[in-house]
Design the sequence.
């Protein structure tokens, strides 16, 4: 192995933030300092202490535990939504690219059409129409991801289709579906994964926004967005209640964006070619 | 060698491309890439097509390989028209005709190991079991001068000449009767060109392969082709035995080509 150029700063920083977020989310499945939904009104509005590292909120719930559980909610929703939306979107993009003609036009105009809606507004509308719930939040966020992935995968796939090995594959007698699975998909994996990382940030933000508006996960499940909205009325009394979840959202979104940028840097074929 | 029942016959084939419109309401201009081209490749024969770039040679090859539809005329491979037969028959026909491309860097999928790439034509429509497929692939790699142990390696680990050998192995793995080679050595170093041409000639003799070799380089044509067709601006202007075309060119354009070559 020859000496690699050093990894981009954005990749390292983003990777660290994402790793910390994921670790907190996973850890919350088995351990939090306190049960995250346990109410202890006698001990409300406490400052940081050995027992409550970041203090307690207006109902005496432990902040650290809530933030960890909120991380779990964010990561879980974002993951399911991005995977779901990404799979459907990528499949549509591949279909458009493989078939071409009127099918391609139809898929892409539909994507343009859905881009015309502000994504978050659309998610709010879906959640408002079908009622606030975890499943609806996931569906709404997945839905806004579909056109993004359709576009990225179609553009990348069109590029791969112009390469000679796809011609060779046609000459070998293979059909459009087989070529798509065996050649196109592996060759567009890099840009799609980069996009997925960036969409993760969008999904976390969307989940926070939906929960802030009361359209996301419902109590007693923890969510950064809902912590924000609950802290809003207490902003002068206990600003830290809004600051902590706010910082978590910023860190998570920043982390995924940086990670996506870093991944793009190292997978861009113009910079280096990996096997 | 006989022309009575040719492996490939191309009869009055044309292909026009629609160009982007220049004016809003006028008709889109068209470019005649191939016009009224006819040629025949006999069994076991090597026919060359020579011509400058843009003369329609590659378009003709792509139509023969059923990668592109002609606007008019007929193409027959072993008596079957690949553009008018059913899908199942076309798949069968594909096993009888294969192609080697110009760019050995683009014609192998960088994300597939070379063993997989060579095996691909066998995946399309063969009843071969996995083990059988594997031994066929390794055998073919050996025949083109690639160490069969290298099968799990990826294209970027090979040189251009080696990649072209791998591409040839892939083309011949189904034991086709007709091989179309589109500029098979144009992107290779001169020292490697001779090796690849020798390999093609060896395989031609070993398998009784009929070949359609496309090149802009008369030296390539002169070294391996029995007969040659000269193309200019989409038309075949002269056809004949390589030796007689080279020594006594009839058409003005051929004279120019030969003069530049000598």
Sequence:
């Amino acid at each position: 192995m020859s000496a690699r150029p050093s990894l981009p700063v954005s990749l390292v920083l983003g990777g660290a933030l994402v790793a910390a977020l994921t670790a907190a989310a996973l850890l919350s499945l088995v351990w939090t300092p306190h049960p995250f939904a346990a109410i202890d009104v006698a001990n409300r509005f406490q400052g940081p202490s050995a027992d409550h590292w970041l203090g307690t909120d207006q109902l005496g719930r432990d902040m650290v535990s809530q933030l960890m559980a909120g991380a779990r909610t964010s990561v879980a929703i974002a993951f399911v939504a991005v995977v779901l939306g990404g799979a459907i979107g990528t499949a549509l993009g591949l279909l458009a690219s493989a078939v071409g003609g009127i099918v391609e036009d139809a898929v892409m105009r539909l994507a343009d059409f859905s881009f015309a809606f502000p994504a978050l507004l659309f998610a709010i509308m879906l959640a408002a129409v079908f009622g606030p719930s975890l499943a609806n939040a996931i569906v709404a966020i997945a839905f806004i991801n579909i056109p993004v992935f359709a576009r990225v995968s179609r553009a990348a796939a069109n590029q791969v289709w112009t390469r000679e090995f796809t011609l060779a594959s046609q000459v070998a007698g293979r059909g459009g579906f087989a070529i798509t699975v065996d050649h196109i998909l592996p060759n567009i994996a890099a840009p799609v994964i980069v996009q997925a990382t960036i969409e993760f940030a969008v999904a976390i933000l969307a989940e926070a926004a939906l929960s802030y508006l009361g359209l996301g996960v419902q109590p007693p499940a923890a969510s950064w967005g809902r912590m924000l909205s609950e802290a809003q009325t207490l902003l002068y009394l206990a600003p830290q209640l809004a600051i902590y979840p706010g910082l978590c959202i910023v860190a998570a979104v920043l982390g995924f964006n940086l990670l996506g940028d870093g991944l793009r840097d190292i997978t861009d074929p113009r910079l280096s070619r990996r096997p | 060698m006989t022309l009575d029942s040719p492996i490939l016959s191309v009869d009055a084939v044309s292909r026009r491309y629609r160009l982007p419109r220049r004016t809003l309401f006028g008709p889109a201009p068209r470019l005649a890439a191939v016009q009224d081209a006819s040629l025949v490749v006999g069994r076991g024969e090597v026919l060359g097509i020579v011509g400058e770039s843009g003369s329609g040679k590659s378009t003709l090859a792509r139509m023969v390989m059923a990668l592109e539809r002609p606007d008019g005329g007929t193409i027959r491979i072993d008596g079957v028209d690949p553009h008018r037969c059913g899908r199942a028959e076309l798949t069968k026909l594909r096993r009888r005709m294969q192609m080697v491309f110009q760019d050995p860097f683009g014609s192998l999928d960088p994300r597939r190991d070379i063993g997989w790439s060579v095996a691909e034509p066998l995946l399309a429509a063969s009843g071969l079991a996995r083990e059988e497929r594997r031994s066929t692939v390794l055998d073919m790699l050996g025949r083109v001068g690639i160490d069969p142990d290298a099968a799990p390696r990826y294209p970027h680990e090979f040189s251009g000449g080696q990649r072209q050998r791998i591409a040839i192995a892939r083309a011949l793995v189904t034991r086709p009767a007709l091989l179309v080679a589109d500029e098979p050595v144009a992107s290779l170093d001169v020292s490697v060109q001779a090796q690849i041409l020798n390999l093609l000639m060896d395989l031609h003799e070993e398998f009784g392969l009929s070949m359609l070799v496309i090149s802009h380089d008369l030296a390539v044509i002169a070294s391996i082709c029995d007969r040659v067709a000269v193309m200019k601006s989409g038309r075949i202007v002269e056809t004949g035995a390589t030796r007689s075309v080279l020594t006594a060119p009839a058409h003005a354009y051929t004279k120019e080509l030969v003069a530049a070559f000598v």
